[in-house]
Design goal:
alpha/beta, binds S-adenosylmethionine, 5 strands, globular, disordered C terminus
């Protein structure tokens, strides 16, 4: 692993994301729900007959995502990779607790995913590529691990949606705020004082993530993250010789929907009634 990779691995070892959980009971039923499995299949392969025995790679699996996918697809081989040993250990504990014999875990950077072979039908990579020193190389490596008819579910940070996050990241850098308990405590106190109209206040009010210190560190004190506009995402995909399929959550891309309408610098004459308009979390989202 490169020294660059080590910076991120060390960060996520101290601040694993999502915060580790001992149990998936709260949403296990939703993850096991066969209808949701079919909906996901139809989204990824709209013109292909249903199958649930695909090989799935969870690239940058964090603390629970690979275990959730192994619950959802008991007939599939699910492989989780991550650079953070803490995250791999947390996932392994869940695997043992739920008897997930279809789950395989490796401490491995995405940049080395090619060694797993071009065998994956379904690759999930959410909240990860934007932390890589070179996201283009990361995505090309994932493409090489993808079977010819495979599909990738990708999530990268959105430049406009995270505008308030970047203001606060800049504030933290200028003041030298560090990801230790004292500094994070002071930061939480500062965030409580942000005025209602601050571009971050929508996320602070509506994203459960911000209630947890490690998640706050992930958003505001991460040693490396970048974000993408829609044209930049499309260029990233094309640059890896992949073809754009669809947005998983469509509503936030309509001008009257999504977190951006809460930012006072943008006039929003209509609010979108669609529940999809809540801000996407960093994680793989609702099951
Ligand atoms: C924000 S978390 C997202 C976790 C998970 N994908 C989810 O959505 O719940 C980012 C994860 O990517 C991992 N990561 C960062 N750079 C990586 C790399 N080059 N290779 C593999 N994992 C990486 C981190 O250790 C961390 O667990």
């Amino acid at each position: 692993m490169s020294r660059e990779g080590d910076v991120i691995a060390r960060f996520y070892d101290r601040h694993p994301y999502p915060p580790p959980v001992d149990s998936l009971d709260e949403d296990a039923a939703a993850w096991r729900d066969g209808l949701r499995r079919r909906v996901e299949h139809a989204r990824m392969w709209p013109s292909v007959p249903y199958r649930d025995d695909r090989a799935i790679l969870i690239a940058g699996c964090g603390t629970s995502q690979a275990a959730r996918y192994a619950l959802r697809y008991p007939n599939a081989r699910v492989v989780g990779i991550d650079v953070s040993p803490t995250s791999i250990r947390a996932t392994r504990r869940l695997g043992e607790r739920y008897g997930l014999t279809n789950l395989e875990l490796h401490r491995m950077p995405i940049e080395e995913a090619g060694t797993l072979g071009p065998s994956f039908d379904h690759i999930v990579c959410t909240g990860v590529l934007h932390h890589l020193a070179n996201p283009e190389v990361g995505l090309r490596t994932l493409r090489d691990a993808l079977a010819p008819t495979g599909a990738i579910h990708l999530m990268v940070y959105a430049s406009y949606g995270r505008f308030g996050v970047y203001l606060l990241q800049d504030y933290c850098r200028r003041l030298g705020v560090k990801p230790n308990p004292d500094d994070i405590g002071d930061l939480v106190a500062t965030l409580r004082e942000l005025p209602q109209g601050h571009p971050l206040s929508h996320l602070l009010r509506n994203t459960p993530d911000f209630a947890h210190d490690d998640a706050l560190a992930d958003a505001l004190l991460n040693p490396r993250d970048r974000s993408y506009t829609v044209p930049e995402v499309l260029r990233l995909i094309e640059g890896a010789d992949l073809r754009f399929g669809r947005w998983v959550r469509q509503a936030p891309y309509r001008p009257q929907c999504g977190a951006i309408t809460e930012v006072p610098t943008v006039g929003a004459s209509q609010r979108c009634p669609n529940p999809n308009s809540s801000p996407p979390s960093n994680s793989s989202g609702a099951p």
